[in-house]
Design goal:
This protein is of the alpha/beta class. It is built from eleven helices and 16 strands. It has two domains: about 80 residues, Methane Monooxygenase Hydroxylase, Chain G, domain 1 (Up-down Bundle); about 350 residues, Nitrilase/N-carbamoyl-D-aminoacid amidohydrolase.
Amino acid sequence: MNFDNIPTWEQWKNASSSFMQIRATKPTLVRVDNLVKQYPVAQGAAKVTTLKDLKHAIADWDTDKIDRGVKTGRLEAMQALYDIVLRKIYQLDGWATHGYILTSCVGYKLGTGAYDENKVPAGPDTWNTRRREETVEIGSRVAKMTAAIASAHGSYQAFKASKSISDAEDRKTLKIFMAPEFFFRGPYGAYQDIGWNAKIMAMMRGETSKSQYEDWLFVLGTALYSSDKEVKQGTKMVKVGNLLENYALVQKGGSQTNEVQDLVVAKEFPSHVDFKHPGLGNLQWFDPAQTQAKVGGQMQKHFAPEGGRVDPVKDWDGTGNAPVLGVNTAQVSEKVGGTIFTKDGITFGLEVCRDHLIGRLAHCKEAGTVLIQLVPSCGASIEHSSIACVADGIVFNVDGDGAGNTDVLINTGGAGTQVGGREYNASDGNKIAIYDPARIPWPGLIRKDAVPNV
């Protein structure tokens, strides 16, 4: 059963039929009925308010049934009503002009991650030398990303024509452009000024704010930073090593693009493959007493991002199996400052490389609730045991290892179902992979305490 629009009272009464005297004894159903009656006469912003009230009323109805263990023959109709209510909310209340039914994943295929471990900034003022060189390098990286996005847009127009996708259908399709991990890494292995995150976003808006990108979401790879880790010793602050941080950069496109539409997602669990560490074994790299990384030509003690959990590598059983988050690690929420975010009403989970391999999203409190799972990486593919989106959810990986690779799966259980697509040439000689539109699995009825506040 499906509704193309919010049903009239007569349509709703027939779809969810029961005797009126029986309905009157069911308070959660009466509340739904009254809001369905109210919607046609609501005007302007009141329509959105009514829809949000209706969404929560349906959740109350569903929660009541779950709590009492009661079966109902009205479930299919309530499911259909909930689905159309969600769609109407996102159409009327989103900052964009409409909601999305489908998504097409667009991957920028190229190799990333390489840097000269022996490159040392010239003295005597090495900090300013790095700042100047990194400023120039970031400018060139922004230009490269800008050209790649323009190539992706042009390639998508060719793809759209080849698939006979109408403009009306295309407006319902969110295009997700993603570049791999370490796209912004710098000539020395990492940038030294974390303030570049905001500057990169602002520079990229020169392209992404164009009206042609109204229906695009950009994951601009990741940006890597190495800043001094200092502790107080007596009356002085003393450097004890490097704090290494890696951030995925996310930006909504279109004419309304501004800093409000920007966000960063931090990588929680760095990997030994992220940095050069000559003379240090891979497992030693994860030992807080031994770990080092060579950045700016210098081998220095490495510190994982502050606030992260203890790395599960310490629980490695020696069998050669990669360590994963489990009973010895905290199961935290990823909604605030974590891997989960919402754009245009769509709940995303973004895991950078090793975070995905060890199951950051799969282990969190909200596992199994995101609609689209994004994995920018450099040395990681989709790990089937780490797929943590809803049933029929979309998993998208862009990997920068070697010449680059991309993959899109639908979460149908097990290894998932592969999504087909085509490759196009980017202007820089790399590839743009465009995947067939896949249906966004809008959520069905769930408990009220699990319903997002939209």
